[in-house]
Structures are given as C-alpha cells and as structure tokens.
Amino acid sequence: MSDRKTEIMETAINLFSDKGYHFTSVQEITDACGISKGAFYKHFASKESMMLALLQRHHDHLLQEANAYQFGYGLTAQDQLIRKLQVELERSVEYRSFFNVLFTEFLPNEYSEVNVKMKQIQYALRSWHERSLVEAFGDRVKPYLSDLTTIMEGIIKEYLMLMLWQQQKLSVKKLAEFIVQQLSVIVQHDQEIVPVLPADFSNTSNELEGKAAVQHEVESMLVEIKTKTADDETAADALKKQIETTEMLLKELQCDIPRSFLIEALTKYLSHYPSLRIESEKILALWKDWKGD
C-alpha cells in the first residue's frame, strides 16, 4: 500500500474521530492532507470505499501478523494461541479511533456497504478463532467448539470494552495468557460438558441461508488464505494451489446451477490441508444441507 494512500486513511480517521464520519467531507480530508480531490479519487472511489479499505487493512494485518506465529518460533500450540490473541488485542487497541468511528457512526440495523463488510469480517474472524482453538486444544473440543469460541470472543469483547471505552490500562500479554488459561481449564474438565450451541453453529446462519451461506464461507476462507505467508518454495507452491482451488470453488458457486460433483471434489481436496480442514468440512456440510443430501 502506498505511503500516500496510508496517509489519506490515517488523516481521515483523525477527522472522523473529531467531527464524525458523516460530517466530514472529502474536501476536508484532502485539505488536511494537502492534496487535490483528484489525488484522493485516484486511490478511493468514495469516502465509503476508503472505510472499506480500512476495514480490510485491519483484518489482513491482524491475520498476517497472528498467523506468523505458526511458523519458526518453536512455540507450543497453546503458546501460539496466546500470541495470536495478544496480536488481536494489540491491533484492536491500536485501531481505537477507527473502531470508535465504526461503532458510533454505523448503526448495525442500517444497511450500508460498511456494515456488510463488517459482518463478513466478523464471520471470517469467528472461523479463524474456531480453527485456532482446534489447533491449540485438539479435536476433543469439536463437540463444544461453538460454545468455546463464543466464550473466548465474549471475554475478548468485554476486556476490550474496558480498555477502549473506560481507558483501563491492561497488559495485553497478561490478558492473552489469562484467557488461554481459563479456556484450558474448561478443556481439562470437559467430561461433563453439555454443549448449548450445535456443533455446526455459525453466526452466518442467522443472516444467510442456502447457497449464499456456502458462498460466504468460501469467500471468508479465501480472504484468510490470501493473508498467509510461506517460508519456503514448497509452502509457497501449496499456498498457490489453495488460492487457485478456492477461487475455482467460489467461481463455481457463483453459477446459476453449480455442479455438485465439482463443488464436493474441490472442497474435499481443500480439506486435505490441515489448516483448511475445519472450514472445508463446514463448507461441505452447508452445501449438502442445502442440496438436501
């Protein structure tokens, strides 16, 4: 991303924080940056498209940095989860002004491209949380994975509210360790757990149905795959194949009459990659449910 584009976005967020998103004009953003309107529109189609770019940048940076701890650090599975949560908390605090604008200027019950994007990222983040929990604690958590994910996200949300809105100064490293500690206690004593949420629960089920839900899951998986990095040529080749296969799957789903044999073949191929197994199985289950298999 160019320095100029980054400068425009960061300047805009400061203005939005002071005046509000809806009361800040493109002219005011360009004046603050010392550029022309033409220079602004060279990078963004509109003020809203800039907000969409900010959302995507935050999400991509978060996953890129957090997923880096899966490689070359010699960490245990649970230590990896601690580092991932630490990154998530740090980036959320760093983007404090941005989130303040999002939550005060864009009401969840109103339709906007920004709200749609926020929901997509929320779903993608939940899928990432689910995969991270299975990687940390193993397959034993699958029967109550939806509940465990909800518990973890609830804790993260409440502590972030304390830090962002009540200005509580907390150590994100200690907080990440504390969260994983509590999750570990639940897992260690899970013999009598009776799940509240179904194993295949997904927030998307409340918003999307049928093929739209399947397509959304594939889009979310593609976003996450594209944020991954490869350490060597073999890993880079595998990553390229994952992206190409997922794009092919998405293209087929966008057809008026998707070919079932191809959808299932591509999804099963992706499930052979350990990092994509959980999401691929969810996609296949949603597809079969829609098809009535």
UniProtKB/TrEMBL annotation:
Coiled-coil region list: none
Keywords tagged on the record: DNA-binding, Repressor
DNA-binding region range list: 25-44
Keyword Repressor: yes
Listed GO MF terms: DNA binding
Recorded superkingdom: Bacteria
Statement: the UniProt record of this protein carries the keyword DNA-binding: yes
UniProt domain HTH tetR-type: residue ranges: 2-62
Protein name from the UniProt record: TetR/AcrR family transcriptional regulator
